[in-house]
Amino acid sequence: MGERVNRVGITAPSGNVLDIEAVERARALFEGRGWDVTVGESVYSSSMRFGGSSESARTSDFNHMCMKEELVLCARGGYGFSRILPGVDFSVIAQKGTWVAGFSDITFFSLAYLALTGGKSLQAPTASVLGNLECDPYTIETFFNVLGATDYTLDFHTPFHDFETEGKLWGGNLSILCAALGTPYFPRIKGGILFVEDVDEPAYKIERNLNQLIQSGVIENQKAVLLGDFSRVRRSAHDFGYGLDEALSFASMHTSTPFISGLPFGHKMKMATLVVGAQSVLSIRSHKALLTMKGCPAFRERIRL
Prior knowledge:
Number of helices: 11
Largest sheet: 7 strands, mixed
Low-confidence stretches: none
Order of helices and strands: EHEHEEHEHHEHEHHEEHEHEHEEEE
Distance between the termini: 7 Å
Radius of gyration: 19 Å
Number of strands: 15
Strand order of the largest sheet: 8-15-14-9-10-11-12
């Protein structure tokens, strides 16, 4: 008699789904790997810019998926998770041990879950990314490899010099980190490895957000900051040559915590999957970085009954 299959639920706790076909392709991707897939009502309905027919329906759909499934994959980011934070059953999710995966606005969940329960989650491609026809094979392969691993090592190239440290891995979208700062949903991590990324922001806002994390003491309490992708940086007539490099350089000069670039994570079709809350080891030799994350989901390949 075969083992039961793994179960995944797809839900839209933030923005409304703009590409249903991409979500359906993500569904087929999981089914092709032997998973049972449930797609929540919030994916197929919306209210203004938000997933679900209403805020309460969106919250209910997310909580229900977290109670029912082993893995909950968010359909997309956008904006909206901060609206439902007070209604999310974080303690129940932690007790059940459900893994939640997503990035961008889903950073609100990863931060709050870590702050309130110490629970681990995945900063990972959403269903809209996994089902995108331009999704890089690396993204899909790494996502499922992390799902199936106990420990997992990512490698990437960086201009940074030789370096080694270890600590709790955490972070996500830079704008969301700053939005959560000062709330009960922001983790108080010391000696961690913080990773950040952002999209569609001008360089001065990226610098301002990094300065906020520096001046509030968040970055100074970390052992390293991993810089992911800062995509589609907007320019203005006021820049006069000022750009992302200048913004990152200014911020890095105002903290003793090293900034390490090259992490393949962010709003691009090639992105790694990261385990928020995992004890991790970062080792850099000859500009090759190895990031080993401990305590990954370890979903076993299962066959259908």
